Amino acid sequence: MPFVVPEPYCWDVSFMTFYDQIDEEHRSLFQGLFNCSKHRTNDLQLKALYDLMQIHFTNEQAIMKNANYSELSQHCQIHDEFLGKLSKVHTPISDADIDYCKK
């Protein structure tokens, strides 16, 4: 799903899903990535982002499963690929890694 990536990179209402929990988690993910982009050598910021992503994906997949989302399997695969890539990111975080996470 291609989206327009805002600059500065921050959450706005165009990302609203109308699931309050997911919207709040998305706000946290935007902030986590923003923090990583500003503190590229901070291992704790990177770990916090990974942990936020992992929790969010678990929650989002549960909501999708409960809603009988027809493309759940494909969406889970996207999540798994993203976490696999993010798990290989190390500090200092590169521009390419920040850009990947934004999309």
Strand-pairing-aware structural class: mainly alpha
Distance between the termini: 9 Å
Strand percentage, roughly?
under 5%
Round the Cα radius of gyration to an integer and report it. Answer: 14 Å
Largest sheet: none
Secondary structure: helix percent: 55-70%
Q: How many DSSP E strands?
A: 0
Shape: globular
Along the chain, the helix and strand elements come as HHHH
Q: In DSSP terms, counting alpha (H) and pi (I) runs of 4 or more, how many helices?
A: 4
Q: Which ranges are low-confidence, i.e. pLDDT below 50, for 5 or more consecutive residues?
A: none
Describe this structure in words.
The chain is 65% helix and 0% strand. The protein is mainly alpha-helical and 103 residues long. It has helices at residues 20-38, 43-66, 72-87, 95-102.
Gist?
The chain has helices at residues 20-38, 43-66, 72-87, 95-102.
Would you spell out the secondary-structure blueprint of this structure?
Layout: H1 20-38, H2 43-66, H3 72-87, H4 95-102
Distinctive features:
103 residues; mainly alpha
